[in-house]
Amino acid sequence: MKHRKLHIAFHPIYAHPLPEGHRFPMLKYELIPGQLLYEGVIKQDNLFNPGLCPDEVVLWTHSKEYLNKLKKQTLSAREQRHIGFPQSPQLTERELMITQGTIDCCHYAFENGIAMNVAGGTHHAFAQKGEGFCLLNDFAVAANYLLHNGLAKQILIIDLDVHQGNGTAKIFEHEPRVFTFSMHGKNNYPFHKEKSNWDIELPDGIEDAEYLNIVHRSLPQLLEKVQPDFAFYLSGVDILSTDKFGKLKVSINGCRQRDEVVLSTLKEHRIPCVVAMGGGYSPLVKTIVEAHCNTFKVAKEVFEL
Fold first, then answer.
1. Which of 17, 41, 114, 237 falls 20 to 30 Å from 28 in CA-CA distance?
2. What are residue 207's DSSP bridge partners?
3. Which GO MF terms does the UniProt record name (predicted)?
């Protein structure tokens, strides 16, 4: 019998230099695996380095014109402002690696019940443009990969980042085989929201008890309605009370309990799941890393890996 373990996509390309002011958002991606290794939660063989997602696969989701702009470095100044990063070949390579990492995670999830991407959850990327630190929509590309190859028939995207998954919602607005669920801050970015299959808008200042109650109520309804055979889970930690932009008041323990509810429910229903980290913008990077590492610890405990 094959030994089951937690496979985690790690992207060493994060070490590439970035202009001043853009380094901090990337720092957590280097620190999370290091912390998990230091604590003994994982070993080196839990980590894998994906390659680059082929153009053919990217084009099942994104437009050829947009992909060409990314690869030829011809994004306009305005397009770069909307993304939030200055364009560079390394940045495009990074996004292609993140996307392939999520696809690879799908195969590991079929084997072990779950797999995780240290990055990913780039849900603000549309088919023809990027926004909000997102260039390519890795969940969307991976979902279309599964559908194209007949590996899944009904996919559920659970997006619990504090920001609405606007790009994901738009990409799949006419695709009934992918159900998009976004539970996000009502008064938060993006200020023009797209229409997911199911949106739950949260008021500013919501705390643990109310937040977790909504998660507990919503998940059974989701699974009953969608009947998915595969799920993607975006576990953003920008719901924390310490987050600079989140506007919610969820504690680190509340965030961990959220992950326990989601992952336990998916395991109970035997639905393979890929998890990506999404956002987190607390002033202290150690807070961000702790909250994200909790997601990995919960996954390992729930799935007994």
1. 114
2. 249
3. histone deacetylase activity; hydrolase activity
**Greatest C-alpha distance within the chain:** 54
Domains assigned to the chain? 8-302 (3.40.800.20)
Q: Which two tokens stand for residue 94?
A: 């990074």
Alpha helices in 113-207 (DSSP H): 138-148, 166-171
**Residue 132 DSSP code:** T
Angular region, 270: left φ>0, alpha ψ -120 to 50, beta rest:
left
> Which of 98, 103, 215, 188 lies closest to 148, judged by CA?
103
pLDDT tens digits, residue range 64-87? 999 999 999 999 999 999 999 899
Q: How far apart are CA 84 and CA 133, in angstroms?
A: 5
pTM summary value: 0.95
Residue pair 139/276 in contact by the 8 Å Cβ criterion: yes
Beta strand 47-48 with 178-185 is unpaired
How many Cα atoms are found within 13 Å in the side-chain-facing hemisphere of 146? 30
Task: Report the run of H or E that residue 286 belongs to, with start and end.
Answer: helix 285-302
Q: Which residues does 158 contact at the CB level (< 8 Å), separation at least 6?
A: 181, 222, 231, 232, 233, 234, 262
User: Whose CA is closest to 291, among 243, 245, 247?
Assistant: 243
Helix (H, G, I), strand (E, B) or coil at 274: strand
Q: pLDDT tens-digit profile of 180-217?
A: 999 999 999 998 999 999 999 999 999 999 999 999 99
Give dist(CA 231, CA 251) in Å, integer.
Answer: 25
